[in-house]
Amino acid sequence: MRLSLTFSAGQIQSAADVYNDASNPLSGRAGPRMSERNFPIEIDCRTVKARLDAGDPLVLLDCRERNEYDFVRLETARLVPMSELSQRVGELDELRDAEMVVYCHHGVRSRQVANWLRGQGFAHVQSLAGGIDRWAQEIDATLPRY
Predict the structure, then answer these.
(1) Which of 54, 77, 89, 95 is nearest to 135 (CA)?
(2) pLDDT (tens digit per residue) in 86-138
(3) Which of 15, 35, 105, 31 is nearest to 68 (CA)?
(4) C-alpha atoms less than 13 angstroms from C-alpha of 121 in its C-beta half-sphere
(5) Packed helices 131-138 and 45-53: angle between N→C axes, nearest 10 degrees
(6) Which residue in 136, 146, 99 sits closest to 118, CA to CA?
(7) Measuring CA to CA, how many Å separate 90 from each of 30, 80, 84, 96, 117?
(8) CA distance 122 to 124
């Protein structure tokens, strides 16, 4: 079953504003920032699943919007939408040294967020390659896809 999500014009405009505003660190025009620790910006879902199953203390951060999160999410994920991140980054201060995996629908937004968080001093953050959609395909086929 495929679900189509609709967004209001205000949501679309605000996302477009974020993307096009080069002064905004979450902008699609912002350059990547390198981590103090050199490891890949992306991590695949099978590796994340194996690490979670092994009990590794990974923090899952969902950077999608509330309606996407309400529709489908990974069980232990914390929601901080990309559109709110620059105002809410202080909520993540306690996780500054934690290993964090950011995810979105397909991995585009989460890669931007991971790069931005690295630039803010979160050195151990990665983006889930393929997002929750790939997770639903490769790890848990019971999750709804959209």
Answers:
(1) 77
(2) 999 999 999 999 999 999 999 999 999 999 999 999 999 999 999 999 999 99
(3) 105
(4) 8
(5) 70
(6) 99
(7) 21, 11, 11, 10, 11
(8) 6
Q: How big is the CA angle at 122 (ends 117 and 128), to the nearest 5 degrees? A: 65
Q: For residue range 5-52, list pLDDT tens digits in order.
A: 444 444 444 444 544 454 455 554 443 333 344 789 999 999 999 999
Q: In what order do the strands lie in the sheet with 99-103?
A: 42-43, 125-128, 99-103, 58-62, 78-79
Give the residue carrying structure tokens 């899952």: 60
Beta-carbon count within 10 A of 6 CB: 7
pTM, 2 dp: 0.76
SS3 labels along the chain: CECCCCCCHHHHHHHHHHHHCCCCCCCCCCCCCCCCCCCCCEECHHHHHHHHHCCCCEEEEECCCHHHHHHCCCCCCEECCHHHHHHHHHHHHHHCCCEEEEECCCCHHHHHHHHHHHHCCCCCEEEECCHHHHHHHHCCCCCCEC
